[in-house]
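PROTEIN DESIGN WORKSHEET
SECTION A - STRUCTURE
LENGTH: 657
TOKENS:
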């Protein structure tokens, strides 16, 4: 069923002299209106409170905008960190996505104001970086750690987003001038340079697709090819002295395993996948498959979070995944969403969307409070009580990153191949696009993540036969992705699918149910995903989770938080074994509570509560109940104990009750 699909943008890849391996193209979020009650409220929170937080901190409480004003005036002291420009760009990108479906004249006016200041700060040769413009231009491009190209990448992404939403091209012209400046400074002179923080690669690929100009594809490829040949040189940070930190120890195509800084890695592999999608370069594809396996099988939290260590903001030894000290930066989970989408586009395999979904609903979304005004930078899987979201951070990469992801959610719901519409995520939405020369309109209603009833109503379709490919989520299956986590109780199987009320059979291919027919207005698919509590255990090599289980329901991981459990979350064991897992799952009560945490499932399950003296000598385990909530929603009722991996034996209880 493998088909080569050439999207318009890839045709410009052909102009560059290559054929395409990319099989799928995502449907752009601007053609997807999210109507889903769960996601709509997240997007509304971003459109209002998150964007306002970004504006407040970018403009008033920090000097990020002032830096542009000073750079334009060619006078004044730089405020903040050398990569703070990137936060301005990411906030504009988030504003642009949000404005598409949530018009807001004040937000657009603010973005226009900022863009005018950014444009005024750009040097005549196209260079733009307030840190070097205010601290000494003679030093520009001398320290690869200093993120000049990272900031340029975020400028490019913001500019494309803002142009596509508003049609205003001032920022796009700024971005193009800077990209051209970088091209002539580096690639055209073959002046070696390894970006300290990858991002420019994926941004240039977006610019290539936006403009059709092959030089940006060439420049993106050039950046990727620079890496791993000893060109990387930083002068400031100790971490940089280990090239593995920046994935610079070996050329990208020869890389065997994941190393170093998690966000840098995700952005780089996203860019490499974008290049491979156009150039059909098997070297990148093979390397990324190896690295993906290393990430997912040995280095990923059950939440889809990655990057366990704070000291390098990244990966440590295989299976070294501590829970309470998990770093799991929000940006790294955002990067997992980007990269896994690209891997799915290249292969058509659903396992990548399973990981995307895991990172999206858990590791990434946890970064955002329900109101959208507080943020996690790190997303630990346990708390002894002192951890909480904050209004902002000195290094403020995460707030605008989660904002741009949530407000462009529609990018991840549907894809096309030559002869199929792929439903990747079950998120209530209206797809309204042109395909095969005709209008295609499909309305999805989804009970997920709370219950499994999903419907897809075709409202208008091309006359020609095409397949609907419905992703069969990994959480329905017997095995979790890879061998790092395993479900203990078996799945109840594949969903029942109805077409116009009649149960139908279907073929499966690479993790999708395939329904191939001539579709007409009024056709309705109904899917009933069999949802059940799944107990999850870890590979024994992950010693931190010895004698522990996690609780999953649909795409979401659940956690026990003090607020639902009389102020404690570490005072019980859940006696799940291979033998009783099914009965303990079916004895658990899943209840949708509309007034709790903006509406979530709360799951009550049997435990043995620990009671006894503080010295632990007379510890007793007595039957009791505990309640779990979705992991992303914890810490919205104040700080308190929380854990995702629940002890199954007294020896693995970490604190004395
Ligand atoms: O360096 C820019 C951003 O700040 C990184 O992506 C984050 O990990 C944080 O270090
Ligand atoms: Zn971050």
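SECTION B - SEQUENCE
RESIDUE ASSIGNMENT:
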């Amino acid at each position: 069923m493998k088909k080569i699909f050439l999207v318009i943008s890839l045709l410009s890849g052909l102009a560059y002299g290559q054929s395409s391996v990319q099989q799928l193209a995502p449907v752009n979020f601007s053609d997807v209106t999210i109507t889903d009650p769960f996601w709509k409220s997240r997007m509304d929170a971003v459109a209002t409170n998150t964007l306002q937080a970004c504006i407040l901190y970018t403009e008033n409480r920090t000097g990020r905008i002032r830096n542009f004003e000073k750079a334009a005036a060619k006078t004044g002291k730089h405020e903040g960190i050398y990569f703070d420009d990137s936060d301005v760009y990411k906030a504009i990108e988030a504003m642009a996505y949000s404005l598409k479906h949530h018009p807001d004249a004040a937000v657009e006016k603010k973005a226009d104001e900022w863009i005018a200041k950014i444009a005024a700060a750009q040097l005549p040769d196209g260079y733009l970086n307030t840190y070097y413009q205010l601290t000494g231009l003679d030093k520009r491009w001398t320290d690869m750690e200093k993120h000049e190209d990272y900031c340029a990448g975020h400028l490019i992404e913001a500019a494309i987003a803002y142009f596509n939403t508003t049609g205003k091209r001032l920022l796009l012209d700024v971005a193009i001038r800077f990209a051209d400046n970088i091209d002539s400074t580096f690639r055209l002179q073959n002046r070696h340079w390894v970006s300290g923080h990858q991002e420019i690669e994926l941004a240039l690929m977006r610019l290539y697709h936006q403009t059709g100009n092959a030089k940006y594809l060439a420049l993106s490829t050039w950046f990727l090819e620079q890496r791993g040949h000893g060109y990387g040189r930083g002068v400031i940070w100790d971490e940089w002295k280990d090239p593995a930190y920046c994935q610079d120890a070996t050329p990208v195509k020869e890389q065997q395993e994941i190393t170093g800084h998690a966000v840098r890695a995700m952005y780089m592999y996203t860019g490499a996948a974008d290049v491979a999608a156009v150039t059909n370069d098997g070297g990148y594809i093979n390397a990324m498959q190896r690295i993906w396996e290393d990430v997912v099988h040995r280095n990923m939290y059950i939440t889809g979070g990655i990057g366990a260590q704070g000291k390098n903001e990244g990966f440590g030894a295989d299976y070294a995944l501590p829970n309470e000290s998990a770093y799991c930066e929000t940006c790294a989970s955002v990067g997992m969403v980007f990269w896994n989408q690209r891997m799915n586009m290249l292969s058509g395999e659903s396992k990548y969307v399973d990981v995307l979904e895991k990172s999206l609903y858990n590791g990434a979304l946890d970064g955002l409070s329900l109101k959208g005004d507080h943020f996690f930078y790190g997303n630990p899987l346990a708390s002894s009580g002192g951890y909480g979201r904050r209004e902002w951070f000195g290094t403020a990469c995460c707030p605008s990153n989660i904002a741009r992801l949530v407000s462009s959610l529609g990018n991840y719901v549907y894809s096309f191949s030559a002869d199929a519409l792929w439903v990747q995520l079950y998120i209530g939405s209206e797809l309204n696009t042109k395909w095969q020369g005709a209008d295609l309109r499909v309305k999805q209603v989804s009970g997920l993540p709370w219950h499994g009833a999903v419907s897809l109503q075709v409202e208008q379709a091309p006359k020609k036969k095409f397949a609907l490919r419905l992703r069969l989520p990994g959480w329905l299956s017997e095995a979790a992705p890879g061998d790092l986590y395993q479900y203990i109780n078996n799945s109840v199987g594949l969903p029942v699918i109805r077409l116009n009320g009649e149960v139908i059979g279907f073929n499966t291919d690479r993790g999708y149910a395939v329904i191939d027919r001539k579709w007409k207005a009024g056709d309705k698919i109904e899917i009933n995903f069999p949802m059940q509590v799944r107990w999850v255990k870890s590979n024994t090599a992950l010693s931190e989770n010895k004698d522990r289980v996690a609780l999953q329901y649909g795409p979401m991981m659940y956690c026990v938080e003090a607020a639902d459990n009389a102020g404690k979350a570490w005072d019980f064991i859940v006696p799940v074994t291979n033998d009783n897992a099914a009965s303990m799952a079916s004895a658990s009560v899943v209840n949708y509570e509309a007034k709790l945490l903006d509406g979530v499932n709360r799951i009550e399950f049997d435990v043995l509560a620990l009671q006894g003296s503080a010295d632990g000598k007379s510890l007793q385990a007595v039957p009791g109940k505990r309640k779990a909530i979705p992991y992303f929603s914890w810490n919205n009722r104040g700080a308190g104990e929380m854990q995702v991996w629940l002890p199954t034996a007294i020896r693995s209880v970490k604190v004395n009750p």
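SECTION C - NOTES
Confidence is low (pLDDT under 50) at residues 1-20.
The longest strand covers residues 600-611.
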